[in-house]
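Hi support team,

I've been running sequence recovery on a batch of backbones for a student project. Most finish fine, but this one hangs at about 90% for roughly twenty minutes before it completes. I'm not sure whether the input is malformed or the queue is just slow. I've pasted the structure tokens below so you can try to reproduce it. Let me know if you need the job ID as well.

Thanks,
M.K.
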């Protein structure tokens, strides 16, 4: 289904957009980075406001955490007015940046001047502190105020384990690693039963161990109704040079989970949007302990997901495991060596992975080539063998999200090898794999169809061992045949895809 995105701006949203552009221009990139600020363009704000279901008649409490200049509140008020919602709105905005108070206050006054906005309250506060205080309460404290509609573009910044924000969040049972997840988790807890939340965030929460607790809490307390995927990485926040892949999602508090509407658009907030309705089981697979969220925007991608899901094996069935490399270089800095020599073990970084194989050493580079064979490093070493190595972080210029190479037993000198933490290693009980199986796994991982499937749940450049474990794999016989051919073939994308098509025909046969 294809529909048109939201209509042009009204005078209110045009004035607020002018404030956003002005305030954004006044702020250095470093200042925005410290606060995790990325102001919402008017076109994107209208997409967020358009995600809400029309509420039943009544007085609605609206919350905008990290409100900036009030773009999201204004877009929501605009929509409610234009569509004649039978409601009144009590608006609450929370913003920590004192430099934005005049602009935000001006936006709220303009909203309050409209007939359906009954009141507008501005809290000059850090939302984490304010929200935790609201929810924590006390023996004689009043019940926390709950909201009917929450709309937010939360700040994006990592939360250190020992930070005050992490301690505040932990005190009310929220365990998250990023500020945007903290905002969403707090806001979801502040929803009234049946209340709706719409947020734009990076896609990174959809998978990976760092957001597992966040995903579980969110999906346990709310129903996922709608999710909007942007086809382009850099369109949504083009004027602030944000390269994160973003999604907009719509949640409803304490209602039964039903089907999910998945939308996709070019990313700029205008033009056509494509919609499809899918069962929730295709978004979060039943029995998935990691609660990975799969985003399948069209039938072609759904076909890819179906073919991948029909493969016969998981890694344990193959006798294969995957782990991150053991060497965290800053912890063993005194044992790193730029050049190999006696009493040293070859050390592999992503820079040693080129064109499907390991190229070692790399002389004159910035990374070490060896690790001292010392008592302190023994637990970090693997026996020489055949391994599949996968970069944990692919560059934005990489054609594929997963970049795999094979380390053969005879590629390096000595009886042991060390692998740095930015590399995932496929192994068998911490030893090498059969040679043909290793090449088969690498060819399979480097194929276009695996890349297409992986992007359905991985919206960033990090490839976690957990993600690689979640994939299904061809049979041992198929991997052996594929690997035997791949080892002798040219390492280019077309050749890899043709080999996968030949030896794993279920992935590509019509």
């Amino acid at each position: 289904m294809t529909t048109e995105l939201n209509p042009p701006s009204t005078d209110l949203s045009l004035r607020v957009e002018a404030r956003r552009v002005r305030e954004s221009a006044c702020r250095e990139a470093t200042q925005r980075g410290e606060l995790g600020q990325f102001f919402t363009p008017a076109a994107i704000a209208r997409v967020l406001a358009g995600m809400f279901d029309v509420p039943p008649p009544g007085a609605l409490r609206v919350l905008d955490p990290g409100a900036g200049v009030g773009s999201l509140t204004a877009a929501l008020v605009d929509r409610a007015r234009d569509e004649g919602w039978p409601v009144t709105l009590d608006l609450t905005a929370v913003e920590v940046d004192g430099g934005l108070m005049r602009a935000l206050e001006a936006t709220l006054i303009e909203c309050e001047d409209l007939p359906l906005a009954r009141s507008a309250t501005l809290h000059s506060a850090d939302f984490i502190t304010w929200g935790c205080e609201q929810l924590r309460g006390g023996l004689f404290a009043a019940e926390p105020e709950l909201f009917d509609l929450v709309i937010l573009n939360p700040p994006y910044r990592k939360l250190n384990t020992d930070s005050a924000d992490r301690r505040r969040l932990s005190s009310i049972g929220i365990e998250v690693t990023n500020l945007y997840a903290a905002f969403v988790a707090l806001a979801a807890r502040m929803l009234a039963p049946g209340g709706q939340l719409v947020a734009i965030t990076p896609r990174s929460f959809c998978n990976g161990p760092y957001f597992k607790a966040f995903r579980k809490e969110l999906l346990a307390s709310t129903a996922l109704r709608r999710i909007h995927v942007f086809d382009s990485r850099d369109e949504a926040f083009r004027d602030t040079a944000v390269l994160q892949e973003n999604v907009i999602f719509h949640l409803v508090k304490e209602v039964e989970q039903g089907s999910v509407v998945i939308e996709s658009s070019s990313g700029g907030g205008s033009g056509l949007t494509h919609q499809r309705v899918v069962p929730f089981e295709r978004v979060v697979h039943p029995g998935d302990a990691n609660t990975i969220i799969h985003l399948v925007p069209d039938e072609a991608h759904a076909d890819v997901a179906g073919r991948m899901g029909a493969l016969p094996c998981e890694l344990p069935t193959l006798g294969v495991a995957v782990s991150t490399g053991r060497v965290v270089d800053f912890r063993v800095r005194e044992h790193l060596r730029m050049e190999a020599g006696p009493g040293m073990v070859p050390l592999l970084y992503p820079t040693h992975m080129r064109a499907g194989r390991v190229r070692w050493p790399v002389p004159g580079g910035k990374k070490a080539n060896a690790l001292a064979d010392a008592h302190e490093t023994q637990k970090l070493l693997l026996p020489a063998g055949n391994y599949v190595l996968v970069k944990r972080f692919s560059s934005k210029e990489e054609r594929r999200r997963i970049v795999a190479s094979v380390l053969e037993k005879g590629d390096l000198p000595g009886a042991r090898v060390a692998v740095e933490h930015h590399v995932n290693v496929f192994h068998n009980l911490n030893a090498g794999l059969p040679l043909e199986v290793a090449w088969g796994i690498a060819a399979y991982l480097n194929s276009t169809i695996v890349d297409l499937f992986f992007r359905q749940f991985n919206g960033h450049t990090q490839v976690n061992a957990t993600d690689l474990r979640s994939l299904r794999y061809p049979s041992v016989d198929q991997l052996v045949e594929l690997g035997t051919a791949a080892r002798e073939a040219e390492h280019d994308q077309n050749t890899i895809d043709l080999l996968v098509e030949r030896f794993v025909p279920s992935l590509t046969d019509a």
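--
Follow-up from support: It reproduced on our side and the slowdown came from queue contention, not your input. The chain has a mean pLDDT of 88. No action needed from you.
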